[in-house]
What we know:
Chain A is α+β, with helices and mostly antiparallel strands. In chain A, 21% of the residues lie in helices and 13% in strands. In chain B, α8 runs parallel beside α13. Classes of the chains: A alpha+beta, B alpha+beta.
Amino acid sequence: MAIPANQITNVNPSPLNRLESAYLPEIFKGFGTTMRHFFTSFGQGPTSRTMQYPEERRENLPVEEGGINASNFRGVHRLNRDEDGRVRCVACMMCPTICPARCIHIEAAEAPWDDREKYPKKFEIDELRCIFCGMCEEACPVDAIELTTEYDIVGLSRQEMVFDKEKLLHIHDLTIGKKPM
Amino acid sequence: MSSPTPTITINGVRRPFSPGQTILQVANAAGVEVPQYCYHDGLSVVASCRICLCEVWSPNPRTGALEPFMGGKLVPSCQQTASDGMVVHTDSPKAVANQKAVMEYLLINHPLDCPVCDQSGECFLQDYSYQYGRGVSRFQEEKVKQPKKDLGNHVLLYSDRCIMCTRCVRFTREVTGTGELMVMGRGNKEEIDVFPGIPINNELSGNVIDLCPVGALLDKDFLFQQRVWYLKETPSIDPITASGDNIWIHHNEGKIHRVKPRENPRVNKWWITDEVRYGWKFVHSADRLGAPARKQYGYPAQSDFPRAYEIAVAGLRRAVEDGGRVALLASPMIACEEAYLLAQVVREIDREAVLAVGPVPVKGSDRVYPPGASEDDPRAFKVHAEKAPNARGVRRVLEALAGPGQVLDFEAFLRAMGKGTGSSGVRAALVTGNYPSAWTTPELLGCLGGKFIVAIDTLAGPHVDAADISLPAATFAEKSGTFENARGMIQSFERALTAFEGARPEGQIAFDLLHLIACGGEYERAGATRPEVYDAADIRSRMAAEHETLGVFASAVGHPAPRPQARPDMRLVEI
C-alpha cells in the first residue's frame, strides 16, 4: 500500500559550513563521545553498564536495572507438588503436545492414589533442547509445570541435562520459597 | 408434485434419497453434519439422546402446501423416515436451542476430566460441546459421582462419564446376542452395568469401546498409553484370521498402539473380534529376528544379508546339481505378491520345484453372531475358525505358476519331504513362517533334518535354529500386499511401520535372491546393479500381466476407501 502524501516528511539536511566541511573537527567531536564513555566507564566507573556476575546477580537487582521479575521470568522448570506432597501432574500430555522444541517426554500410568486417575510414571525435560518459551506452563490445566527464576543450570554431560521427575520435584522444593505457586 | 426420485431439503439443499431411509441417514450420506450420540448404522434406533432433533416441515398431501410436521414439534431425525418434499432444518433457532439444551443436560453430571480421559481427542461430547454447546456451565450443585467398574477382560467402565446412549447395551443384545450389559437405575442414578458374576468377555467385547461416543468404556490394553492425537492411522487387513476384517493400525513413532475396525459393509461391517484387536502384539515381540544367521559347526551364527544370500543360493543350487528337488513352503501368513516372488525364486533354481502351502491353523469351528443367525443375514458377524489370513491367496498364486492341483498342502508336503518313508527327492527347502506364535511341529522338524533349509521368519523358533540359513522377515504392519479372505475377497493393505531393524519383507528378500541368481550367485559380481524394490502394487500388475489366471489381481482387489476430507474444527475468524 502506498504511503499517503500527508504522512511523508521531506528532510533536507542543511549544507555543511566551512568548519564542518574541514572533516577532522567533526571526527574528533564524534570520537569525543566514545572516549568520554571509555574513561568514565573504566573499571566500575559511573557510566559502566557491566554486571559483576556472579558476585552481582540479576535476582538482586530491581527490574528497571535489568533484574528478574519473578512472576514472569522463564528459567528452568519445576514440577509442583500438591498439598500432600505428591506430584500435581496428571499426565494429560498437554505440555509435550504444545512444546515447540519437543523436549518433554512423559510416560503415563495409573495413579497409585484413589483420588487420581493418572500420574506421570516418567517425566523428563531435556533442558538443552528447551527454548524456555513457557508454552508448557500455559498449557498445563493443573498448574503442575512452572518455570522458575533459576537460570544458571549446568551439567557435565548431555544426559545430565535431561531432568527427570525427581530432579524437577527437587527444584520445586528449592524454589517454592522464592516463587510461590 | 412428486419428482421421479424423491428428495428432501436439508438446510436449504435438496438431497435425493431411497425410500425407507431416515432423515439422519440421508444427512449422513450427504455429509451434512447432524449431531448424534445414540444412533449407529449397525444398531437399532432408540432415539434416546435427543440431540439429533430437527425442525421438519412436510407438504400437506391435499394442498401441497408446507406445514409444520408433527404439529411443529422437533422430530428425532434418526427415527423419522424421510418422505418426499420434506423440508428439514438442523440449524433453525428451535433446533439449535435444543442442541444447546441437550448438551447442557448431558454435561450436568459429566466430570470435567478431559485431561486424563483417554477418549479426549476423539470424543463426541467434546466435539459437540465445542460446536453446539455453551461455553460455561450454569450448574451450581454437586455432580453425581459414580464408580469405576471392571466389566471384563478388556473393558473398563467409568460410569460417571457415561451419557446413557445405550449403544453398548444394544450391541451386546443385537450383534453378539450375549446381552451382558444392561441399564441399571433411573434418572441421574442410571448407569450401565453387567449382571453380577457375568463379565463381558464375548469374542467381540472390544467393539463396545469403539461404540462408546464418550470416554465411559475404555480399553484396558490402551489405557493411558497414548493421547489419541499422537496416533497416525494406516488402513490394513486382519493378519491372523481368515475373515479378512478391515482394520486401522493406530501407531506412533514406529510402535503400534492399538487396532480399530475399519468400516466395510461387505466384510466386517463395523466390528472386529478381540483376537484381531489384540493380535498385533507379536509385531513387537522380544523374539523378533533381527539379523540373518547361518549355521556354523551345528550352531546358528549371526551373519549379514549378502553372505546369507550367497550361501542360500549356493545351497539350493547344489541340491539341484546333486539330483534333488527344491521345495517351497509358502506360509499362509504372507502376502500373495510375496508368495509369487518366492515361488519364482525356487522355480528359477529348480523348474520343477515342489510348491506347498504352509500349515493353516484352525481353532474350534466357525461361529456366527448373534447365535442362531444365518450367515446371509446382513446383521450377522462371522468369526472364522481358520487362523491364517491368506491360505487361499497363496494357493491361488502358486497354482497359477505350477498348474492347478500341483500345489501341495502341508500334509502332502510332509510326505514329499519323506515323512514316514524317510526317503525323499527333496534335498533343499525354502520355509517361510510369519506366524504370530510358534507353529512348527515335530514332524516338520523331523522332515527338515538332513536337508539344506533356508528359513524366512519373523519370530525365533526351533526351525530357525535348525536352518542352514535364516533370514529375518517383516510382519504385516511393516509391508504392503494383499490377502485373500475365506470368502475369496482379495484386499490390499498398506505399510504402517518401517521394518523392524535388520529385517526385510519376504518380498524384498525374494527380489534380492532373484537378483543374486541373475548375477550368477556371487554378491561381488552383483555389486554394480541393485535388486528391485518390493512394491506390492507393481507386483500385482506384473502378476496379472504374466498369468491369465491371476487377472483378479488387476481387477478385483479391494483397496482401502479413500479417506474423507478432514474438516477444519475451527471456523475461520475475520480479524
